[in-house]
Amino acid sequence: MRGLWMSAWVIVWAWVDGVAFEAAAQVHAQRPEASGSPGLERRLRPLIAAHKGDVGVMVKHLGTGETFAHRADAPMPTASLIKFPLLIEAYRRVATGALDLKTPVTLHDEDKVPGAGILTYHFSQGTTIPLRDVLRLMIVYSDNTATNLALDAVGLDAVNAEMARLGLKRTKFHSKVYRRDTSIDPEGSREFGLGVTTAAEMITLWERLHLKKLAEGNEALCDAMLDHLLHCDDKSMLVKELPPGTKVAQKTGAVSDVRTAAGILYTPSGPIAVCVLTARNQDQRWTPDNAAERFSARLAREVYDHFQQAADLKEAGRDDSPLAFGATGPRVERLQRLLNRRLEPSPGLVVDGDFGPATQEAVIRFQKERHLGDNGVVTPEVWRALGELPPDPAGDPQAEADPAQLNAEFATLRPEPAEPAANDPTAVPFVTARAWVAIDADTGRVLGGREPERPLDMASTTKIMTAHLVLKELAAHPEARDEVVTFSARAAATPGSSSEVREGERVRVGELLYGLMLPSGNDAAVALAEQFGQRLAARDGSDGLDPLEAFVAAMNREAQALGLSATRFVNPHGLTAPNHQASALDLARLTRVALENPEFAALVATRRRAARLIDGEGKGRTIVWSNTNELLKIEGFAGVKTGTTSSAGACLVALGQQGERRVIVVVLGSAASASRYADARNLFRWAFHQPVAAPIETGDGR
């Protein structure tokens, strides 16, 4: 929210700053431009070249580290963006006890200044509000009067000293807003106006906030700052062209020929820090189509689309992003199989999905043989050199392993102790998820949630219903457990996460359930639907349907029977499809019913499972499936199901136990894979502190 009523002397001041800044810009124009991402380079460089004004940009994906930078070290005017560092120092002082957010602040007429905000225009002399609300107004409405009140409490020198302590020596707050006489750096005020920063230093601040490394490491206070920034009401820059519903924590600024914006985009591909600084803009209009604002909006959308495209490739099973020591999951399994086939002699890696020392040693050996370095990181170049998996199991020592022996070894796996809560576990935590719910697994009582009944894409959490239906059939007909499923061409060709069973290979139903739920096999979902669809249709009097369609119809009948009013299934695996949605509450209630079957509970709690596959010529091979649920490595969690697509974001349905009490937590649309686990763990900590018979908590979780 920016004022359109600036007085003439303000415009003259901005013009003087503009003249002074021109000289500074010429000094920094010779700095070399830098970029760490060819993909972002191709998308963003033409936008920057076409903009009529000076630009400093930095982008960093906070999950992968992929970065783009353009004049990121050049000092630039901030306008109101400098209020973000003021917020940081205020909360640092709260963390040390030097400030109290409840301290009343009294508004006097002499405090009022023009421009953005609501205090000057809507509040009376003598109004008293807590410091926390002063900071809220400063960020949400960019309130200039609130900013000056906050500076009275914190101090200009203190803000700059904290930035210097963090190593950000080019980020400085020069004076109070519309109070040039308070400047502690007159030369800086003349050159840059209210404040100065660089795109690189801004990204550093946002990354530290994301990692909870501000406010003396106090996570609750970092969450409080994020909450202010998530509610910033400026929709003219970073937010403008992003898909509806995208969460953005941000702060913007605008004065005359300066437009600035910085923040974190919470996208399905993960959190992305973006900073766009523009000055000496030719277009200085205060209109919705201002060129600098359109440039910022377009840049944010290009960044979103770039990383979304990478996420879509992952969903389609064509992920060649870097992989390094400590990684786990199906991509590591694929890597291990490829290394066993490509290296002579074979390193004999166990295909267990853990990127440990043996796998790293094999990667380095492969890199040296192909002259690709020796750092042990699987880069896109290494993936390309490894190629695709051959159609036969030759060279894979695990293919001949005894499944019973491997399963006995897997049964000895023990989870690690859970870490104690770092903050007040009774407060509703900040989460990145679009929707969440926590219910008592034994009573079904809702403990709390945010938009728990909103239908959303659910990704592979769909497979909870798929497994529930099959296990329900097995309970009524135990002999079906030993039926043999022969993989069809349709099943084997299903895109996305896979059990890696090949067309024509055979596996028992009881084993294939592990291929469905552990590696989240979309192919296994189709194979099981084909196996059971016809008999379910016959039992319900709906003969004549394709077995896959018949199984999906049975899923919807079961949802209706269970009262899951916000749920509709279009397929048995969860790949994105129109109207394939469920609410967090429906998924929690479905899971509670499914867990009544001990076989389902044991299935989803399994970390690894080996099975024997037989092909059409009678040749056998052993395959190992690893559970995608990272919480199973931590004591107190008993699994259930993950899910990830570009539309759904990162999803998780999880069961946790503390003593005799069990809680089900569902998060839909978390910002990234790691975020869903952080969201869930924080919600579990909170949920276990709620009385079983407590009233429903309606906190928004932000």
Describe this structure in words.
The chain is of the alpha+beta class and 702 residues long. It has three domains: 8-313, DD-peptidase/beta-lactamase superfamily (Beta-lactamase, 3-Layer(aba) Sandwich); 330-397, Muramoyl-pentapeptide Carboxypeptidase, domain 1, CATH 1.10.101.10; 435-687, Beta-lactamase. It has 23 helices and 21 strands. Strands 2-1-10-9-8 form a five-stranded antiparallel β-sheet, sandwiched between helices. Strands 12-11-21-20-19 form a five-stranded antiparallel β-sheet, sandwiched between helices. Strands 3-7-6 form a three-stranded antiparallel β-sheet, sandwiched between helices. Helix 16 (463-476) packs parallel to helix 21 (584-594) and helix 19 crosses helix 20 (547-561). The chain is globular. Mean pLDDT is 87; it is low at 1-34 and 694-702. InterPro entries: Beta-lactam/transpept-like, Beta-lactam_cat, Beta-lactam_class-A, Peptidase_S11, Peptidase_S11_N, Peptidoglycan-bd-like, PGBD-like_sf, PGBDSf. Residues 428-670 form the Peptidase S11 D-alanyl-D-alanine carboxypeptidase A N-terminal domain. It comes from Isosphaera pallida (strain ATCC 43644 / DSM 9630 / IS1B).
